[in-house]
Amino acid sequence: MDEIEVVVAHSERATLRVGDVFLKVDADRARMDVEVEAMALAPVPTPEVLWHEPPVLAIAALPGRALGRLGEPSAASPAAWAAAGAAARRLHDAPLPPWSARGVDELAADLDRECAWLVANAVLPADLVTRNRRVAEAALRPWTPVFTHGDLQTGHVFVDGDEVTGIIDWSEAARGDALFDLAVLTLGHEEHLGDVLAGYGADVDVDVIRAWWSLRSLLASRWLVEHGFDPSAPGCEFDVLKARMQEARAGETLHRRCE
To answer: Mean of the pLDDT values across residues 71-93?
Structure first.
């Protein structure tokens, strides 16, 4: 019998691997139902669903390897990153799913709450939070909803050579902002943004993607801390926020010199 590998486990869900089968256990049936339906609707490669008996979903392993990992350099080629961008574009051009993600008002309220928690608990310096919050606010604008993955991080995109072999973890899929997906895909891998956009093949507002980097990192930090992950690890969310603050300071300095 194959050994059982615990891929991820926390209080909300767990994923186990047994040979070429992944077993996802999620106490939230609605979230798992979204994942199954989203994979059926998505016009991009997804894992084969072997069976689904709540609270467990069994899916087949994908060929290839993850496009990258947050906090680690990616070994994938520029062409593979471009292929990931092209896959995101196919998804965003698809018919909308029947459910929606958080809207601008809800995100703004969440941002208020999470920034207050980060400062009150001395998790991050107040100046770092304040500057990133200013950057993040550029993402809080009206957008045309598209079919979004909702958590399109590099660890969820599998490639073999220069081809995307599949995208996993669809529980956050919904109608949402296309630039959010592109931001999550390039979070911590900003050097590959140009490759992703080349594959995506459409003009986008890069400043909004940068705003989503800040917004995503601010909103995710408390959840990561409370579920046993480390956003302070090199290259992860806290470093993303520090980079945004440095950019903001550099922009302010340039503006003063030009006055």
So the answer is: 97
Range of the domain at 214: 63-258
CATH number for the domain that contains residue 170: 3.90.1200.10
Confidence label for 255 from pLDDT (cuts 50, 70 and 90): very low
| 133/217 Cα distance (integer angstroms) | 10
Number of domains in the chain: 1
Mean pLDDT, rounded, for 197-224: 97
Per-residue pLDDT at 93: 98
Instruction: Find out whether the peptide bond into 54 is cis, omega within 30 degrees of 0.
Output: no
Asked if the structure places residue 54 within a domain, the reply is no
Phi, psi of 56 (to 5 degrees): -115, 135
Q: Is the pTM of this model over 0.90?
A: yes
Could you give the strand order of the β-sheet that contains 65-66, starting from the edge strand earlier in sequence? 65-66, 157-160, 163-167
With 90 as the cut, is the pLDDT of residue 105 above it?
Answer: yes
Whether the CB-CB separation of 151 and 13 falls below 8 Å is answered with: no
Write phi, then psi, for 79 (nearest 5 degrees).
-65, -35
Tokens of 151: 């958590």
By the 10 Å C-beta count (0-12 exposed, 13-18 middle, 19+ buried), 52 is classed as middle
Residue 136, C-beta contacts closer than 8 angstroms, at least 6 positions apart: 111, 211, 212, 214, 215, 218
What is the residue whose two structure tokens read 């909702």? Answer: 150
- Exposed / middle / buried, residue 161 (Cβ in 10 Å: 0-12, 13-18, 19+): exposed
Residue 21: inside a domain, yes or no? no
Determine the residue type at 45: P
Q: Which of 97, 89, 117 is nearest to 221 (CA)?
A: 117
Give the Cα separation of 16 and 9 in Å (integer). Answer: 8
CA-CA distance, 67 to 182, in Å (whole number)?
14
Residue 88 domain-assigned? yes
